[in-house]
Every structure is written in structure tokens, then in C-alpha cells.
Write a structure and sequence with these properties.
NAD(P)-bd_dom_sf, globular, 3 domains, 11 strands, alpha/beta, EC 1.1.1.267, binds manganese (II) ion, binds 1-deoxy-D-xylulose-5-phosphate, binds NADPH dihydro-nicotinamide-adenine-dinucleotide phosphate, 19 helices, Rna Polymerase Sigma Factor, Chain: A
Length: 401
């Protein structure tokens, strides 16, 4: 019987994970829930906790604590509140942990979970982008491992022949191109928040949906792939594939290219992580290539969508530069979602933050090691640098506020 924790249980990935667990596993026989953690949605967290009965349920946002306490009274379930309590719950012993908190707020909880030896199904790409290989090494040193949930990385993981890694020429990440594919920089000046939130194929949380629209998501995924598969930036390409049917590809030296395909439903990669190393049987949605008909591929437009190029630069500089890229993007996306800035302010500010970060005081190319405080300090410094561009609230790191 597996002990399962879900960090970010009220979000898009968290809800899909619980949905899959409920559909395919028997409570008390196949699994027990150790922890459910959420940010501020006290109602949904309480509903989940009362249904799935974890050992502990934690709400991060202290303003929701009175409501959460009230909803959980007489439940007999241990409850707690605050970001330290989320980190502590993430560090409790478990066999399988879904890491689905969004953004830098997930970093400390993921780091704590990695120290326990659990298998971590990693959706929270921002934590890996900031920690780099140190996160993978930490999980492995504790006897656990990181399994990629992100659909592209999960696809690569499925077709990555580890015994043939010196025969791998390229990893090819597919990108939908987002809702603004084909638009020029001039046309992007006037796009709205509502338009940006309409992803053509995937239903996801707001932050990653905006990241898909700017192609920052693919930039984060480029860095994520480099760390997960230990591949240099030059061997990772991005291919725009508007149908989101081929989730990514691996090209081998013998001329074969292996791809993973499937419906645009996160329960597919989640189920792969839940079943790994076996395949988990469930009532997956129909996948009919005859109905889909045509698959197309094209090069990304890095002039109109510079976030991809900036991410590649951040990866090439290394050290803390991916942290700067991530923090600048996260702060600006929060401001864009709040209606305070325009769409193009996002890449412009990220470019500015990366340029500023080239100052020697940022110590960008040192050995990152396991220095979480240094990452969080860089995150906070980057947000402070952008305070004037995005408004004061985004200048405070979600992980330390
Ligand atoms: N959605 C998708 O299909 C995919 C998502 N990912 C990645 O997975 C992660 C989650 O994405 P998604 O599910 O879309 O995001 P959502 O915005 O839908 O959900 C985010 C989750 O994080 C929780 N949360 C926020 N802050 C905290 C905190 N301090 N402590 C505990 N929980 C917190 C939220 O709680 P609450 O809602 O209660 O505030 C919510 O449960 C992201 O890193 C994203 O890039 C990767 C691939 C695909
Ligand atoms: C489902 C998933 O993994 C997302 O990261 C998705 O890939 C976003 O689509 P884009 O290709 O538009 O960024
Ligand atoms: Mn993805």
C-alpha cells in the first residue's frame, strides 16, 4: 500500500491527480493519503480532505485559516496553516508525492519532499529550473527519484533509451505555439489577458497558460529538459506543433526519431508517473488519429516570442541566471494577470532583469550546490529590481511572503 501526498491539490494538476486516484485505486488497499496541501482555496481543500481523509491537510494562506478550521471542525483530521507548515507536510514520509504547487512557492516543499526518499511526480517545473541538477541529486541520494509530469518531459521520459544515451542526437520539445501563434510583435502589443488565457488545447492554471502564450513555458521546459535528462542546450530543440498530439520526440544517431502521442489530457502523464515502472490502466479518453487527420510542424518565431531565446541564454549562462529568468517571468505574469501591465512588458522585463543580473554582485556562475537560501534571495532581488515595472505586490516573493 502506498502513502501518497499531493502538494497543490486544489489546482489543475492536483485535481486531475485526485480524480485519477479516485478512479483507479482503492483507498486503504492501494493507498492512503498522507498530506494534502493548498494555497488559499479553503473550501475545495476541506472538501477534498473530508472525502480522501489524509493524515494532514494544510492551507498556506493564513487569512483562510479561520474558515479552514471551521470547515474541518469535528473531522478528526490534523490540520495546519502557513508556508512553513506546507514545507513540513511535504517533508513527511511518503512513497509517492505529486509536486503541483505553482511557481517558486513550490521550491521549499519540493526540496523537503526530495529529502525523504519518496518518488516525486514533478509538475512544478519552476523548482527544477531554480535548483537544477541539485534537486535530482538530492532525491536520488535519499533513495527516491524525480518522475516528470510535464507532458513534454513525460513524453521524452517514455522514449528515452537510457542505455543508448550516447546515441541521442537531440531532444525535441513540441510547443502548441499558444493562442497568439502567427502574430507579429506589433500585433502582440494589444492582446488582452482574456485572449492570453484561452489556450488552444490544454486546460491549465492561469500562470502556465500565460507562460504558454509568451512561450516562457517552452523556455522553462527547455531548462527543465536540460536538467532532467542531463543534456546540453545545443541538443535540445523546440518545434511548434499546433495540434498538441505529439508531446515530444527523441532523435537517435541511427536516423530513428521516437515520439510519444496522446490526448491533451494531463491525466495521461500523471497516470504514467502513478504506474511507473508499469503502465497504469484507466479509462483514458479516446485518441483517434483519423479524427485528428493532420499533424503540422513549424519553427518557433523567436523575434515575436523572445522568451524562448532568453531561456536558452539563461541556461547557457547557468548558475543563478535561470532563477532570474523564472523570478522575473513569475512577477510579470502576476502583474499581467492583475491587469497592471501589457503582454509585451513580460519579455521586456525579463530581458531587463537578466541584463541587470550580469552585475558581479549577483555571483551568477558559482556552483549552485544545495543553496536554497541563495536561490530565494536571487528571486527576491529580481522581483525588487522589477518593482517599478510591475507594481509593489509582485516584488515580494511568494515563497517568502
Ligand atoms: N496544469 C497543467 O496542465 C500543467 C501544469 N504544470 C505545472 O504544474 C504546476 C501547477 O500548475 P497548475 O495545476 O496548472 O496550477 P494551478 O494554478 O491550477 O494550481 C496551483 C496549485 O498550487 C497551490 N498553491 C499555490 N501556492 C501555494 C503554497 N504556498 N502552498 C501550497 N500550495 C500552493 C494552489 O492552491 P490554491 O488554488 O488553493 O490557491 C493550487 O493548488 C505549475 O508549476 C505548472 O507549470 C506542468 C504541466 C502541465
Ligand atoms: C500540458 C503541458 O505540459 C503544458 O506545459 C503544455 O505543454 C502547454 O502548452 P504549450 O506547448 O502551449 O506551452
Ligand atoms: Mn508542458
Amino acid at each position: 500500500m502506498r502513502r501518497i501526498s499531493i502538494l497543490g491539490s486544489t489546482g489543475s494538476v492536483g485535481v486531475s491527480t485526485l480524480n485519477l486516484i479516485e478512479e483507479t485505486l482503492t483507498p486503504g488497499v492501494d493507498y492512503v493519503l498522507e498530506a494534502l496541501c493548498a494555497g488559499r482555496n479553503a473550501e475545495l481543500l476541506a472538501e477534498q480532505a473530508l472525502k480522501f481523509r489524509p493524515a494532514i491537510a494544510v492551507i498556506a494562506d493564513e487569512s483562510q485559516w479561520p474558515l479552514f478550521q471551521d470547515l474541518m471542525r469535528h473531522s478528526g483530521i490534523e490540520i495546519a496553516c502557513g508556508i512553513d507548515a506546507v514545507e513540513a507536510a511535504a517533508g513527511r514520509s511518503a512513497d509517492w508525492v505529486m509536486a503541483a504547487i505553482v511557481g517558486i512557492a513550490g521550491l521549499k516543499p519540493v526540496w523537503a519532499a526530495a529529502g525523504t526518499g519518496a518518488t516525486i511526480a514533478l509538475a512544478n517545473k519552476e523548482s527544477l529550473v531554480c535548483c537544477g541538477r541539485a534537486l535530482i541529486e538530492r532525491a536520488e541520494a535519499a533513495g527516491g527519484r524525480i518522475l516528470p509530469v510535464d507532458s513534454e518531459h513525460n513524453a521524452i521520459f517514455q522514449v528515452f533509451e537510457t542505455t543508448q544515451r550516447d546515441r541521442i542526437r537531440r531532444l525535441i520539445l513540441t510547443a502548441s505555439g499558444g493562442p497568439f501563434r502567427g502574430k507579429t510583435r506589433e500585433q502582440l502589443k494589444s492582446v488582452t489577458r482574456e485572449q492570453a488565457l484561452k489556450h488552444p488545447n490544454w486546460s491549465m492554471g492561469a500562470k502556465i497558460t500565460i507562460d504558454s502564450a509568451t512561450l516562457a513555458n517552452k523556455g522553462l521546459e527547455l531548462i527543465e529538459a536540460a536538467y532532467l535528462f542531463d543534456m546540453p542546450a545545443e541538443q535540445i530543440d523546440v518545434l511548434v506543433h499546433p495540434q498538441s498530439v505529439v508531446h515530444s520526440l527523441v532523435e537517435y544517431a541511427d536516423g530513428s526519431t521516437l515520439a510519444q502521442m496522446g490526448p491533451a489530457d494531463m491525466r495521461v502523464p500523471i497516470s504514467y508517473c502513478l504506474g511507473w515502472p508499469d503502465r497504469h490502466a484507466w479509462k483514458a479518453p479516446a485518441f483517434d488519429l483519423r479524427a485528428i487527420g493532420t499533424l503540422t510542424f513549424e519553427a518557433p518565431d523567436e523575434d515575436a516570442f523572445p522568451m524562448l531565446r532568453l531561456a536558452r541564454e539563461a541556461l547557457t549562462v547557468g548558475g543563478l541566471m535561470p532563477v532570474v529568468f523564472n523570478a522575473a517571468n513569475e512577477a510579470m505574469v502576476q502583474a499581467f494577470l492583475a491587469g497592471r501591465i501589457g503582454f509585451l512588458d513580460i519579455p521586456d522585463a525579463v530581458a531587463h532583469a537578466m541584463k541587470k543580473a550580469e552585475s558581479p554582485s549577483m555571483a551568477l556562475t558559482g556552483n549552485l550546490g544545495h543553496d536554497i537560501d541563495r536561490i530565494l534571495l536571487t528571486d527576491a532581488d529580481t522581483r525588487a529590481e522589477l518593482a517599478g515595472r510591475c507594481g509593489a505586490s509582485e516584488a515580494v516573493s511568494a515563497a517568502t511572503a
